[in-house]
Amino acid sequence: MLLLVLVASLKASAQKWTKEKANAWYSKVAWGAGADFLPATAINQLEMWQKESFDPATINRDLGYAAGIGMTYMRVYLHHLAWETDKEGFKDRMKQYLAIADKHKIKTIFVFFDDCWNDTYKAGTQPAPKPGIHNSGWVQDPGVVQVDHALLEAYVKDILTTFKKDKRILLWDLYNEPGNSKYGNKSMPLLQKVFSWGWAVRPDQPLSAGVWKFDLKELSQYQLDNSDVITYHDYQTDKKHFKVIDSILVPRGLPIICTEYMARTNDSRFENILPELKKRKIIAINWGLVAGKSNTIYAWNTPIKDGSEPPVWFHDIFRQDGTPYKPEETALIKSLTTGK
Fold first, then answer.
1. Strand (E) positions, 263-304?
2. Is residue 63 part of a domain?
3. Which SUPFAM superfamilies does the UniProt record give (predicted)?
């Protein structure tokens, strides 16, 4: 039995891109900046994608703000429950989103699974935000909810098969921060399976799962060994951020894309991170675009009970009327993305 498992693993691994293919692909990808995107009217992935709350008008407005400062990439989370309850409608809404993003000349990274924040969820109306609490309504996928892996396999393969040749999609992020929420290596079986499901479809776009905490040694090693291109998260200061890149990521010899950074009170800011990422041709995707129901202007562990605006926003760039939180930041972003 062990031999069969090893043989199956080797066959799957053969589907991973070669280093030469990955670098050839990235040589044709334009550098750019972008954000982890949730429309301001959605508290979580379900509210974004369910039929009753899907909001193309706000998606169009918010992506317009991004395009206005030269952003060309968005990272967007999916959720299996939105697919399970309305498979064809879910894919149609993905197509609507992609059409809107493409109109703004924005390519998308879609994310399948996620170990962050609330571990249970249900379809239907989502909870209202809790005042002053970061990501109070964000939900994991699948979290502690007992979900048959055969259903998750069908979900991943259906989405990848439907969109595997779509040039509006930059890459597929298979699993956000596996091992978070104290799951540790409990997340390894699903991480391994989602890569095998991805290899079975083998879309035109690269597959990746971003490294985020190197203390999770087995998970991080698996992510680095099996991703077509390296994606990573880093909310540290510039000195620590670029030390990680130089000491751990660059030696792999693969393209590198930053899929989460920028937490102002952690001293991870546009002005001390973004110019250097551009210099290295590392696509730079910060957390948050328009302040809204996600409450990500508040820091992870610093709630403000009365819901008043924090003295320094943690994430996000724009207010809902399109006014920049810090005009000097949007001017910097635009200068780096457009040269203007």
1. 283-287
2. yes
3. (Trans)glycosidases
Examine residue 56 and say whether the peptide bond preceding it is cis (omega within 30 degrees of 0): no
Angle at 219 between CA 287 and CA 268, to 5 degrees: 25
Mean pLDDT for the stretch of residues 21-31: 98
Number of domains within the chain: 1
Report in angstroms the alpha-carbon separations of 318 from 44, 62, 140, 174, 330: 18, 9, 26, 28, 9
* Residue that the structure tokens 């880093």 belong to: 234
The tens digit of pLDDT for each residue in 224-242 reads 999 999 999 999 999 999 9
Cβ contact 195:174 at 8 Å: yes
Query: What pLDDT was estimated at residue 11?
Result: 52
> How far apart, in whole angstroms, are the C-alpha atoms of residue 196 and residue 124?
31
- Contact status, residue 166 vs residue 91, Cβ threshold 8 Å: no
Backbone angles phi, psi at 217, to 5 degrees: -65, -50
**59 — pLDDT class (breaks 50, 70, 90):** very high
**Could you list the residue range(s) of the whole structural domain that residue 328 is in?**
32-338
189 vs 280: CA distance, rounded Å: 34
Give the closest residue to 310 by CA, choosing from 324, 325, 321, 323.
325
Residue 20 maps to a domain: no
pLDDT of 5 strictly over 60: no
275 part of a folded domain: yes
pTM of structure: 0.95
Cα–Cα distance for residue pair 235/226, rounded to 1 Å: 23
CATH number at residue 62: 3.20.20.80
Identify residue 192 by its one-letter amino acid code.
Q
Burial, 89: exposed, middle or buried (Cβ in 10 Å; 0-12, 13-18, 19+)?
middle
C-alpha distance across the termini of the chain, in Å: 61
In a domain, 233, yes or no: yes
Nearest Cα residue to 297 out of 134, 136, 137: 134
Q: Which helix (H) or strand (E) holds 74?
A: strand 73-77
- Mean pLDDT value across residues 171-180: 98
**Is pLDDT at 8 greater than 50 in this prediction?**
no
**pLDDT attached to residue 3:** 46
